[in-house]
Structure to design on (233 residues):
């Protein structure tokens, strides 16, 4: 039977998005320190905690867990002072991408003072350690030096394998361990890449009405590496 005669199923695009609950968090040596810090709130060693890690290391997942647990208010790093002028909330607060060039330095300084005044907490996420941020306000740098900084390392094999296996299990898809291991060896070292390849494999398997095998994984990953939007079927 040739390829053209095989009936293909058009999968529905359900807009699946990654789950960011505590139960969905896979913990390995790469993120155990950060996960432990999130879990121990409010028993934090300092009012400000900074999660530092490369893109795809899990900062978004951990900050989403903390925000859900604490009911923290999320504030844009570039407009902290404006937000504080509108609503004098006592916190907790979440500020993502705090090392961005357009960080509202005066606003963050006042936010940290507010948190300290009310015995509250701020979680900052960043790609770089605070010492390398473009901070020109000495008082803010002094506050940042007193923060607890937790590093998230690039995802290791165990973390990527655990995430991929869980993503497939959540979709009720059975994939053999050797296929998961193959995927881990071939994809970019990031959680975003793991989520993307599972999405693509799910779509490809539904389209061709086939199981997810090593051969299918190879096709999908090759299509990603070559910059193709979809796997040709």
């Amino acid at each position: 039977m040739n390829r053209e005669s095989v009936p293909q199923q058009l999968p529905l695009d359900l807009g699946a998005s990654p789950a960011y609950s505590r139960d969905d968090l896979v913990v390995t040596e790469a993120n155990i320190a950060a996960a432990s810090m999130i879990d121990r709130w409010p028993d934090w060693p300092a009012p400000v905690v900074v999660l530092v890690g490369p893109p795809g290391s899990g900062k978004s997942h951990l900050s989403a867990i903390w925000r859900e647990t604490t009911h923290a208010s999320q504030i844009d790093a570039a407009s902290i002072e404006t937000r504080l002028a509108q609503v004098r909330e006592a916190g907790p607060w979440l500020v993502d991408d705090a090392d961005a060039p357009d960080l509202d330095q005066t606003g963050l300084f006042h936010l940290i003072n507010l948190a300290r005044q009310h015995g509250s907490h701020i979680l900052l996420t960043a790609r770089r350690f605070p010492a390398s941020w473009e901070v020109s306000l000495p008082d803010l740098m002094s506050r940042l030096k007193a923060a607890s900084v937790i590093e998230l390392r690039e995802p290791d094999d165990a973390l990527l394998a655990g995430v991929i296996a869980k993503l497939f299990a959540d979709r009720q898809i059975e994939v053999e361990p050797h296929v998961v291991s193959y995927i881990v060896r071939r994809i970019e070292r990031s959680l975003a890449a793991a989520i993307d390849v599972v999405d693509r494999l799910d779509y490809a398997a539904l389209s061709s009405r086939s199981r997810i095998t090593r051969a299918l994984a190879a096709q999908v990953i090759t299509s990603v590496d070559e910059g193709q939007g979809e796997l040709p079927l």
